[in-house]
Specification:
By secondary structure, the protein is mainly alpha-helical. It is built from nine helices and no strands. It has helices at 10-27, 49-69, 78-99, 113-130, 135-154, 170-179, 197-217, 221-238, 251-267.
Length: 268
Amino acid sequence: MSGVKPQRDQSLDSFRGIDVLLMILVNVQGNGHSAFPMLKHAEWNGLTFADLVFPVFLLIVGLSAPLALDRPGAIISWTAIIRRTVLLFLIGVGLSWLIRPTLDPNMIRWTGVLQRIAIVYLICIMVVVLRRGAGLAAGLAALLLAIHTWLLLDVGTPAGGRPSMEPGMGISGWLDQNFIPGRVLRKTWEPEGVLSTLPAIANGLIGVAIMRWIKGRDVSNIRLMLAGIGMLISGLALTAVLPLNKNLWTASFALVTCGIGTMFLASL
């Protein structure tokens, strides 16, 4: 991706910087006894300040993609895109390995935060390249959230287990236990697991749709704020059947975090 000097969006740049600062704050505050309660992740259901940081960053990944590729004269280099994706993924695996060095392939953790960012980045870029406008990204995000919700609520495990949203249970836990190679972080489930990757991608695609909407129609801050409020209310309404849960990355969690992120972008 080269040829023309990239557009800069000062609000988005500020948003990204603040979110990275919060990532550092959440990750280096010390052990569970000394950490501030709102800067610790919810153990299962619930939403803390710390739980906002990662999903909002994925929203930012999606917001950034159209700025990079929609500018006049932009040259798309799939070699560069694939290289960035692979490097992000491998750096995530490498950092995990440094925490727990091992020569046993069954003890290597192949999933993680950077790995999920790499996947979301690649999907967002593919959607941006495939079609202009916000419709495709928004439609795919809605479809992923709908499929994920159906799987959580209605699909049991192949072994005959009932649908469940408890740790390590249901189709989400079964997929983590059977399809993630190497080490599963929580033994029976993975915070960046197989099924939860679908709604995490939706966070990025919502960002693509929002940026395309902003740039295509010169959207005012008030309308952007209202869009964020709409997602927040929709997500909260879904908590009647879907708890706010980062580990499962429920649709309610995706919409609430995207709504809060969009509102904060509007305020910047």
